[in-house]
Specification:
Elements lengths: L1 H35 L2 E12 L6 E10 L3 E5 L6 E5 L2 E6 L4 E6 L7 H7 L6 H10 E8 L2 E8 L11 E7 L4 E11 L2 E14 L15 E3 L5
Parallel strand pairs: 6-12
Antiparallel strand pairs: 1-2, 1-11, 2-3, 3-4, 4-5, 5-6, 7-8, 8-9, 9-10, 10-11
């Protein structure tokens, strides 16, 4: 009987080591992709389910990224365009030709959209920073990997009952889908984002990451 339990324990230990090795190999592959990635662009469709008794909300749009720190998010005809450049974020409304200026902390406060797009870079530093606050697990159902991030601690800057699943397809680890789940005020919120037409290292115009000339910039708290 002891031999049986010892064999089972050995199997579990080996399985855990194997899983950890697979995770590290996968993260190394993401890092290597990140090193050669200069730009990203894709279309997305996002559905947010804000609790059991509310109607799902859908939004679609386009996302652009230039390494290391420029982003542009377009989501719908009547929604502001979000432009991110280093530490500044602008919410630009083409209809009024005005742009509301904010700081990078804004990204963590725009609900599912912010959390889904914040994992754009998979550099060695980014992964190390994430490991400080999140537990990683990896599963594989050919040809798709699922990387799950769950906070190590609740509270503080991390939302309660939060998880993020990111799906990547072989052979180039192209992101296909993100599923964000969190509980707020006793209700579960689920945000699912489908990614289409994903492209790396295409030439992106500088104008994508700039505000048009003569735009009125509004800075809250400043005259």
């Amino acid at each position: 009987m002891k031999l049986r339990y010892l064999s089972l324990l050995l199997v579990l230990v080996v399985a855990r080591i194997f899983a950890e090795d697979n995770l590290e190999i996968f993260l190394t592959r993401l890092q290597n992709q990140d090193k050669i990635t200069k730009t990203l662009q894709f279309d997305f469709i996002q559905e947010i389910r804000p609790g059991d008794h509310n109607q799902p909300q859908k939004v679609s749009g386009k996302f652009y990224f230039r390494s290391p720190d420029k982003m542009r998010l377009e989501s719908g005809d009547h929604q502001p365009i979000i432009i991110f450049d280093k530490k500044k974020i602008w919410l630009y409304d083409p209809a009024t030709h005005q742009a509301l200026e904010s700081s990078q902390e804004f990204l963590s406060g725009v609900g599912g959209i912010g959390q889904n797009f914040i994992f754009t870079s998979w550099s060695e530093k980014q992964i190390a920073d994430l490991k400080e606050n999140y537990n990683f697990t990896l599963t594989f159902d050919s040809p798709t990997y699922c990387l799950t991030l769950i906070p190590k601690l609740s509270g503080g800057d991390l939302p309660l009952n939060f998880s993020l699943k990111i799906y990547f397809s072989e052979p180039d680890l192209v992101p296909e889908r993100n599923i964000l789940t969190l509980t707020r005020a006793g209700e579960q919120i689920v945000s699912t984002m489908e990614i289409k037409n994903f492209q790396r290292n295409k030439n992106l115009s500088d104008e994508l990451f700039r505000l048009p000339r003569s735009v009125e910039i509004i800075r809250p708290g400043k005259d």
